Amino acid sequence: MSLTPGHDLGLLQGPLLIFGGAYGNLPATRALQSVAERRGIPPQNIICTGDMVAYCAEPEETVQLIRRWGIRALMGNCEQSLAMRAVDCGCGFEEGSACSALSVEWFRYADSRMSAESRSWMAQLPQTLYFAMAGRRFAVVHGGASQLNRFFFASTPTALKQAELALLGNEVDGLIAGHCGIPFGQQIAGKTWLNAGVIGMPANDGTRDGWYMLLEQEGEALQASWKRLSYPAEQARDAMLKVGLTGYAEALISGLWPSEDILPETEKMARGVALSVAPLVF
Ligand SMILES: [Fe+2]
Fold first, then answer.
1. Fewer CB within 10 Å: N-end or C-end of the chain?
2. In whole angstroms, what is the distance from residue 140 CA to residue 194 CA?
3. Cβ-contact 140, 129 below 8 angstroms
4. Distance 22 CA to ligand 1 centre (A)
5. Per residue in 37-84, pLDDT tens?
6. What's the chain's Rg over C-alpha atoms?
7. Number of CB atoms found within 10 A of residue 10's CB
8. 211 neighbors 194 (Cβ within 8 angstroms)
9. Of 249, 198, 204, 261, nearest to 227 (Cα)?
């Protein structure tokens, strides 16, 4: 399914704060809001790449916080599924996989907690955002440019990423995505691919932290830098256990995903190794 027409935010002056995957993790989302306030980054300079609701215990509360905050938000596959009252999360997990089995638990829960008003809000979210910064034009998508729920990891072959960038046309210099859950940044044939990471689930690196990305102007250049988000993970875990969400609860503490079906070999090998993402200047 191709993406719906995008929404253009025009010219933005940095710094921008970009994140994805709040996943119904209210303590993590609150912590990120405090980071933005401390850094003095206003809501119009904050972009969420989607999946505000998934694994964790407070989906409706997280959506309400994001709406009150007034940041720019993109439709992820979870918003799409909840807005459409679909039968599953639309993550694109293979049938019969552990990810697919695990998603039944949290999707049913999230679906049962979501208000009609939040679903209506999700239904009108854009699937692509465009903005310009320091003479560069960016497209922000949830997974890929061809498909909302397509997984692109750091190790995904360059040719596949190049094909996605080509779909966006010559005028787009960089793509910013989420969905895969592990942040990275790469230069691909003169263009830029950035994944901002997610705040609501660790990066399968054996630490509790979530990740977000800052995009700042440095003279004529732009710099993307990735930051760890530390937050009270026990609080989010306890909230999950209290409502019977067991599948991903301990992952918030161990920093390890309960299933790696979606991961390429390279990312599987990095399980439990504390992630470090070097800043990208371009
Ligand atoms: Fe997603």
1. N
2. 9
3. yes
4. 11
5. 999 999 999 999 999 999 999 999 999 999 999 999 999 999 999 999
6. 17
7. 7
8. no
9. 198
The answer to whether the beta carbons of residues 110 and 73 sit under 8 Å apart is no
**Measured distance CA(98)–CA(208) in Å, rounded:** 22
The distance from CA 194 to its chain's CA centroid, rounded to whole angstroms, is 11
Q: Contact at 8 Å (CB) between 126 and 6?
A: yes
Q: 218 C-alpha to center of ligand 1: Å?
A: 31
Q: What is the rounded distance in angstroms from the CA atom of residue 62 to the CA atom of residue 26?
A: 5
pLDDT digits (tens, 9 = 90+) for 128-160: 999 999 999 999 999 999 999 999 999 999 999
CA–CA separation, 42 and 39 (whole Å): 9
Report how far ligand 1's centroid is from the alpha carbon of 277 (Å): 21
Q: How far is the CA of 26 from the centre of ligand 1 (A)?
A: 18
**What pLDDT does 1 receive?**
54
For residue 195, report the distance from its CA to the centre of ligand 1, in Å. 12
Q: Which of 47, 46, 51 is nearest to 62 (CA)?
A: 51
Domains and CATH numbers, the chain: 13-126+196-281 (3.60.21.10)
Tens digit of pLDDT for each residue in 204-221?
Answer: 999 999 999 999 999 889
The count of other CB atoms within 10 Å of the CB of residue 276 is 8
Alpha-helical runs (H) found in the chain? 26-39, 59-69, 77-83, 98-113, 116-123, 158-167, 233-242, 251-254, 265-269
CA of 171 from ligand 1 middle (Å) equals 26
Phi, psi of 222, deg, nearest 5: -115, 145
CB 28 within 8 A of CB 197: no
Q: Provide the b/e sequence for 80-97 (b: ≥16 CB within 10 Å).
A: bbbbeeeeebbbbbeeee
Distance CA 253, CA 206 (A): 9
Average pLDDT over residues 156-174: 96
